[in-house]
Amino acid sequence: MPRLAGKVAIVTGGAGGIGAATAHELAREGAAVAVVDIDEAKANDVADEIRATGARAIGLGGDLADEDAAKSVVQSTAKEFGRIDVLHNNAALTASDFLSRDTTVSEMPIDVWQRSMEVNLGSQLLMCKYAVPEMRRGGSGSIVNMSSGAALSGDRTRLAYGVSKAGVHALTMYVATSEGKQGIRANTIVPGLILTDAVRAHLSDNILDGLGRATLTPYVGQPHDVAELVAFLASEQSRYITGQMIAIDGGMSAHVSMNTGD
Ligand SMILES: NC(=O)c1ccc[n+]([C@@H]2O[C@H](COP(=O)([O-])OP(=O)(O)OC[C@H]3O[C@@H](n4cnc5c(N)ncnc54)[C@H](O)[C@@H]3O)[C@@H](O)[C@H]2O)c1
């Protein structure tokens, strides 16, 4: 029996990269999946691919920084599949043109700051706000929020991204705390370098090489590495894990280069 048989999952930012890999993995594990993205056409493509494997999936569009859109995504999923068991809050602003404007404290354009908070953090709040009552009705649930290693320490640029992701850690702990006795768990995944198209587009080869050297494993992470962790956190196998930050970074956060420079 697949470990997510009978479960219903929502994956935000599911049009590509880690989200698409996760939507496929949850479906392979038996879940019916709502693939949600601001890019509705690509979300529909991923849902089509999943249905072609014989699993159940729908594609939904929406800017999840908007409360009505988040509410509508949850309602449409519950209407289509009858319940919601798993929420993977994966959507975030990763486009190069946006990130290139996300700079330092003295240069930060306020629109970049606000949009980062609304999308990277606010969408996770809104999705939890509407999914949690559905999970309570079903008697259990697992929420898997996406952060980043950028939230664990300072950097010379991308202040808004790092701060918005740091907020995800607190959101997760508060949701885990208020909903734990209702059978709802919440955890944060903290990825290091995961080779997606978005990362290839906004990081230079030089930086990618450096990150590869800072990774302790002989290889760097792929989207399916994260997808398998989400499936574990979504399943009953992780029933005693809640409120946690779980790094998946090939050990990048476990060392510092004081002597060798890499
Ligand atoms: N790839 C990495 O190395 C890495 C590292 C750390 C954290 N992450 C996090 O993993 C997640 C996935 O990243 P990815 O590399 O697969 O990038 P990606 O660009 O493929 O995924 C992000 C998705 O979010 C969608 N999105 C953006 N704004 C949205 C909105 N307002 N409403 C709905 N959808 C929206 C995008 O269209 C995109 O499909 C992100 O949360 C990212 O911050 C990635």
From TrEMBL:
GO molecular function: oxidoreductase activity
Keyword Oxidoreductase: yes
Highest taxon, organism lineage: Bacteria
Keyword Oxidoreductase: yes
InterPro entries to which the protein is assigned, alphabetical: NAD(P)-bd_dom_sf, SDR_fam
Gene3D superfamilies given in the database record: NAD(P)-binding Rossmann-like Domain
Keywords of this entry: Oxidoreductase
PANTHER family linked: DEHYDROGENASES, SHORT CHAIN (PTHR24321), SHORT-CHAIN TYPE DEHYDROGENASE_REDUCTASE BLR2146-RELATED (PTHR24321:SF14)
Record-stated family: Belongs to the short-chain dehydrogenases/reductases (SDR) family.
Protein name: NAD(P)-dependent dehydrogenase, short-chain alcohol dehydrogenase family
Record organism: Mycobacterium rhizamassiliense
